[in-house]
Design brief:
Blueprint (H helix, E strand, L loop, with lengths): L7 H6 L4 E3 L4 H5 L5 E6 L10 H12 L3 E6 L1 H6 L5 H17 L5 E4 H4 L3 H11 L4 H6 L16 H15 L4 E5 L3 H14 L5 E5 L17 H8 L16 H9 L12 H14 L2 E5 L2 E5 L2 H10 L4 H19 L2
Parallel strand pairs: 2-3, 2-5, 3-4, 5-6
Antiparallel strand pairs: 1-6, 7-8
Helix pairs in contact: 7-9, 9-10, 12-15, 13-15
């Protein structure tokens, strides 16, 4: 699919919660060769929440956009995620998953770019354009509260580095979960002041932890939800990992929080909507009224809100299709 296709905007907007700024997209699409990027910290284990941005990279590739993946080893080290040797080894597992999904990416290691004097210069120039308070507000990108970074100054550098990454790589699109929004808004502001290309920000939805009860939550803003309830490898019973056995996947889904008719704060619904439907293109659900084939996220939501699809129906389909997906991409 090329940029001239009438379906370009539908594919680009698919499975996103926000685009900053959408009005810039059509102008950018007409400029020719385009680049997008995502950055990630090499993890000990990959959980299914990562499949959301991986599938978005596949969408961008279908549009003919060059895909760049930044392996953020230095960022992960700052964020206390392991030694450099450990982080170096972990990144290859992520490459294998992306390969299984058909994503052909250019991989860039932050250990390489941080040695480039031009990157350091850009980082210092960017630092001159923002206040300390602005950077502190962006520490959500680390999955940490501001209070957690008070004792380690390197963590203050992290969100600024993420903003600079997008500018240094000269990308047209920066992809990240909605909790990355503040860092990329900062990148756009810095770009304007330094007369650099502003990245269009593609914010992906959050996959929630499985066992937290959200019944009394007042966090209905997507950024708040991501900050508080995002699936994390730090809570292994609350997450599904790509190397979980089929039986363990079943156990986790069957015990997951899944209230009837509620779609926003429902981890099982989000898995089906934001991972399984985009991956398979269609899902068949067995209901009391017979089998229902769903191809559209809005249709799925309508059926669940109306009660046509019950929690037990949703969980059953989730187990079946998620098991198939993990079989396809297991490394």
């Amino acid at each position: 699919m090329g940029y001239e296709s009438p379906d370009v905007m539908n594919v680009l907007k698919r499975n996103l919660v926000e685009i900053i700024r959408e009005e810039e997209v059509r102008e950018r699409l007409g400029r020719g060769s385009l680049r997008c990027y995502v950055g990630y910290e090499p993890p000990q284990r990959v959980h299914i929440g990562w499949l959301v941005w991986m599938l978005k990279l596949r969408d961008m590739q279908k549009l003919g956009v060059e895909v760049i993946v930044l392996e953020a080893t230095w960022h992960a080290w700052i964020n206390d995620k392991g030694t450099f040797d450990e982080l170096e080894q972990r990144k290859y597992a992520v490459r294998k998953v992306l390969d299984k999904l058909g994503v052909q990416a250019k991989y860039v290691d932050s250990s390489d770019i941080i040695q480039d004097p031009e990157y350091v210069k850009l980082l210092l120039r960017a630092a001159k354009q923002v206040s300390l308070d602005r950077v502190r507000r962006a520490v959500l990108v680390m999955g940490r509260a501001v209070s957690e970074v008070e004792q380690d100054f390197s963590k203050i550098l992290y969100p600024l580095m993420q903003a600079v990454d997008a500018l240094y790589l000269n990308v047209d699109f920066a992809i990240g979960c909605i909790d990355q929004k503040y860092a990329y808004l900062m990148a756009r502001d810095i770009a304007e002041k330094l007369h650099l290309k502003k990245p269009i920000v593609l914010c992906t939805p959050t996959i929630l932890g499985l066992k937290i009860s959200y019944a009394d939550s007042e966090a209905f803003d997507e950024q708040e939800i991501a900050a508080l309830y995002k699936m994390s490898h730090a809570r292994p019973d609350d997450a599904i990992f790509l190397d979980d056995s089929p039986e363990l996947v079943r156990q986790k889904i069957e015990s997951a929080y899944c209230p009837p008719r509620e779609t926003n704060l429902n981890p099982v619904f989000r898995i089906v909507k934001h991972i399984l439907l985009p991956y398979f293109g269609k899902i068949e659900l067995a209901t009391e009224q017979g089998n229902v084939e769903v191809t559209d996220q809005r249709e799925l939501e309508e059926l669940y809100v109306r009660g046509v699809v019950r929690p037990e129906d949703l969980k059953s389909a989730c187990v079946e299709y998620l098991t198939k997906l993990l079989e396809n991409i297991r490394v």
